[in-house]
């Protein structure tokens, strides 16, 4: 193939209307400089003969032919990317969680992970919500923003939150009837340190705004007379 | 119970339905039994059914179908904006708009302020009660 240009050239022959170019064939010949290419090559347009093909390896006839023609699966060119983040959710936004253990809690948004889930923290000291992943659909974004500039969230990704793989223990016959030892999973110290590292900076910027700490500590609930479709969050 | 607010040229009305809901407009002419020609500084002069208007107490002095410039001058002279915003009706509407635009955080702060005020009131009340009972 001929060498590719770094940027593709837009056509030198603009359309007057669709199907009709501005310049004639002879004018385009001149514009493209084909005369110069020919002159450089001695009056003839340069030919590149095809390279001699190396002989293809002799293919063995297949051992198995399917009874009927199998269909080829359709081509799938979809690229996976994280869910589109709502415009109202930016780093530092206060979100209201709508489902799960922390239903109603107001929580600070940190960043969106590659899986599309939102990384969120209470902060833990204020409302008991740890560094956690949350789905965008189960969240109301308020217009309150917290200054998050001092926080480093680079190290958190989906792998950080994956469950630890437990090795299966082989049980002997007697042990089958024994109750499995209740091993309470302790939170590794490293995760606790990560939590405090993120939270201390956050809490400082939260305490700068009056009433914000109490706001984050309180849960949201619909009261009598509140109409969700009319509420401004 | 006679009528106090009449449809007349120069009567300021509040639009209570439609695209211009909540706007103050001036009646500049009457088209027929049901419709009026209506104008405001920030809208194109057009007809509106009386059913879409609620009359206010404010009137301004204008000739029939004035030019926009004359209308604006007359409204400034009669000080419609301030009269409206100081009237109890106008103040209520402003408060309603403010309440509707409150943020979730604002509502929280409002709740704290209400509790604080109620606490102060209750303290004063208990003081008064003690004074009268003693």
Automatic annotation (TrEMBL), chain B:
Q: Which domain of life is it from?
A: Eukaryota
Give GO BP annotations, semicolon-separated: ribosomal large subunit biogenesis; translation
The record lists the lineage as: Eukaryota, Viridiplantae, Streptophyta, Embryophyta, Tracheophyta
Instruction: Determine if NADP is one of this entry's keywords.
Output: no
Query: Which Gene3D superfamilies does its entry note?
Result: 2.30.30.30, 6.10.250.2270
| Record's protein name | 60S ribosomal protein L14-2
Q: Sorted alphabetically, which keywords does the UniProt record give?
A: Ribonucleoprotein, Ribosomal protein
Q: What's a Gene Ontology MF term here?
A: mRNA binding
Known InterPro entries for this protein? Answer: Rib_uL2_dom2, Ribosomal_eL14, Ribosomal_eL14_dom, Translation_prot_SH3-like_sf
In this protein, which residues make up the domain named Large ribosomal subunit protein eL14? Answer: 45-117
* Protein family (similarity comment): Belongs to the eukaryotic ribosomal protein eL14 family.
Question: Is Ubl conjugation given among the entry's keywords?
Answer: no
Entry GO terms, CC: cytosolic large ribosomal subunit
> Membrane-crossing residues?
none
